[in-house]
Amino acid sequence: MNVATILVVEDEPSIREVVSLYLRRAGYQVTVVSDGLAALEILSSQVPDLVVLDLMLPKVDGLEITRWLRERGDTPIIMLTARREEQDRIAGLEMGADDYVVKPFSPQELVSRVRAVLRRTKSSVPGSSERPLIYGTLKIDPQTRLVEVGDQERQLTAKEFDLLWTMARHPRQVFTRDQLLDLVWGLSEYIDPSTVTVHVRRLREKIETDAGNPLHIKTVWGVGYRFEP
Predict the structure, then answer these.
(1) How does pLDDT run across 128-184, given as a tens digit for each residue?
(2) What is the Cα gyration radius of the chain?
(3) What is the pLDDT at residue 128?
(4) What are the DSSP E strand ranges found in 65-173?
(5) Does residue 74 contact residue 47 with C-beta atoms inside 8 Å?
(6) Would you tell me how many other CB atoms lie within 10 Å of the CB of residue 63?
(7) Backbone angles phi, psi at 174, to 5 degrees
(8) The pTM is what?
(9) What does each C-alpha distance from 74 to 39, 77, 156, 220, 228 come to in angstroms?
(10) Long-range contacts from 140-149, C-beta under 8 angstroms, 24+ separation
(11) What is the pLDDT of residue 88?
(12) DSSP type of residue 28
């Protein structure tokens, strides 16, 4: 059985120690660094299964590391932040973080979130019988996890793809934000529903010709969202 590898990037020694302790007790292989530059040096040579990433870091901050990771792949990211303002949390999600935890936090809660993100990442791998979905010029391939609009490939994060795939498999079905949190993120009681709103907006910007007047991802006011083929 393969042990999941986790990189913890945190500059506060007490938090770094507690987080690494609880993750190791949970059975994960943990590497710990205290600044953004050291994190980039490790990430340049090896890709962990998940990154626990502080937002405010010396040398290179968490948002810059998130941007760097998203330019190169879909490594799951859980962001740690002392900022409670919604715009700060949304900034991390906009960059492509999968989840965030606001300090101070329960170590057990963080372990639960790590498990949920890794579980969703593994369970989102489509079965061998899944075929691409094609709606007009939009093509969604679950085997390669590629999305094309016309002849142009669109770069989606892991959660953006999972969200699109979940909705596109059930065209015209209306999903509430809580349902999408359960289906895509897997541990909705720990995650702010605004996560769905942010990811829907990012999806529209990437796959719609006019994000302000979307053809595929429709808002059902007062309820949630639906995929229109």
Answers:
(1) 457 889 999 999 998 888 999 998 999 888 888 889 999 998 999 999 988 888 788
(2) 18
(3) 45
(4) 77-81, 99-102, 133-135, 138-141, 146-149, 152-154
(5) no
(6) 21
(7) -90, 125
(8) 0.64
(9) 16, 9, 8, 29, 26
(10) 140/164, 140/165, 140/168, 145/74, 147/206, 147/207, 149/207
(11) 67
(12) -
pLDDT of residue 8: 97
Structure tokens at 150: 């016309």
Pairing mode, strands 29-33 and 77-81: unpaired
Cross-strand bridge partners of residue 50: 6
Burial class (CB in 10 A: 0-12, 13-18, 19+), 199: buried
**Using H for helix, E for strand and C for coil, what is the string for 29-52?**
EEEEECCHHHHHHHHCCCCCCEEE
Give 45's contacts (C-beta < 8 A, 6+ positions apart): none
CA distance 25 to 111: 10
Across the beta sheet with 50-54, what order do the strands follow? 29-33, 5-9, 50-54, 77-81, 99-102
